[in-house]
């Protein structure tokens, strides 16, 4: 082990990989929160269900999302504590998953100088991938009749219904989640159909419009470090 206190234990490529992982986590934590409490299942008026029985009720709590969120939180806490102990830093961020990841990103070089950090990309990456599998499960190939797809595109669905439909339509729609629908709506790419609605009714959208805009406006890739960081002196 190198005794130089400012030695980086990660290569520049590994530092970039770790930065990309950490910057992915805040958005991922929001998706996990939705999945954890099943918020995506609330207000299901107009929901589209391809396979669920009408009488079947969703669980109010998703244990898989809870486990993934708790594991991701525990992994981040462990690395924050190690950096603080080894580098003599005080933690000043939020204790949420998003707050922990942002603090580690802000103190990325201190993390890279911490003995034992060599396993951080693997541990954090595994936790991120496990969480991603919960909020964006691998697509299952389903052979739908063209007439069924055409009919589904004309439906007026809420964000939950559109996310459910998207899971049936193949890999290109795998990331069309409830939060993605909300993002498209906030960006003005889609608009709800006219009301009037009761205050507690969810907004409804034409499913085909949302599917088209999802493909027309790909999600922005995670930003990468603008410049290679130099070794601290």
Explain this structure.
The chain is mostly helical and 233 residues long. The protein contains nine helices and two strands. It has helices at 12-37, 63-87, 97-106, 108-112, 120-135, 146-153, 159-167, 178-186, 207-216; strands spanning 156-157, 205-206. A two-stranded antiparallel sheet has the order 1-2. The longest helix has 26 residues, at 12-37.
Name the descriptors:
233 residues; 2 strands; 51% helix; disordered C terminus
Please, how many helices?
A: 9
Helix content: 40-55%
Q: Topology as H/E string?
A: HHHHHHEHHEH
- Total beta strand runs: 2
Principal-axis shape: elongated
Q: What strand order characterises the main sheet?
A: 1-2
- Strand residues, percent: under 5%
Please provide a brief summary of the model.
The chain has 233 residues and is an all-alpha fold.
Topology:
Blueprint: H1 12-37, H2 63-87, H3 97-106, H4 108-112, H5 120-135, H6 146-153, E1 156-157, H7 159-167, H8 178-186, E2 205-206, H9 207-216
Antiparallel strand pairs: 1-2
Helix pairs in contact: 1-2, 1-3, 1-5, 2-3, 2-5, 7-8
